[in-house]
Design brief:
215 residues, mainly alpha, 2 strands, Serine Threonine Protein Phosphatase 5, Tetratricopeptide repeat, 9 helices
Amino acid sequence: MAITKEDVLKFLQKAADLIKQNRDYLTELDSAIGDADHGINMDRGFTKIMSSLDGVKDKDIGTILRSCAMALVSSVGGASGPLYGTAFMYAAKVLDKKEEIAPEELYQALKAALEGIQVRGKATEGEKTMIDAIAPALRAFEEKLKSGASLREMLEAAVNAAEDGMKKTIPMKATKGRASYLGDRSIGHQDPGATSSYLLFKAMLEVEKEKGGQA
């Protein structure tokens, strides 16, 4: 069940593709409760990631993820650049010098990424942010990990939990970020950050499926 450096590179390509395909949708979501630029910003960030990989794709996984972090912070405006950039940077520390990783190490990297987002954004679950998709996804991943499930089963559980968490942001009142300025008017809208986070988990699962990961 080892996750190779090539798998990580495929994930980044898949994530970039999914973000581009959903660029207008993410921007539409953000137009209701934000600055109407989340899709545009995320697409720009992942396009920058892909263009910067040539210089690091032969390096270790940690170095690749650090390159992603720098690309996001340097090219993405608003809150999403620093938040996602910090997530990649924290994950990179866990996976430093690694050429391949086990599911347990992937979980530790994702857990570190969430910690980075919380440290940077000062947010917790229930405040209508990307954390509302990521935190339940990690709990679902950990539960499957402890039960001895396959990586594909872990990622399927994570994607389902992320999607559920994303949808649960709709009735929430935002208390963090740009959307919090709207108060009660933020209720009834799906959080764009939670949506892009769901897409990243979906990208991981798609790579594993294409690899022929055990169902």
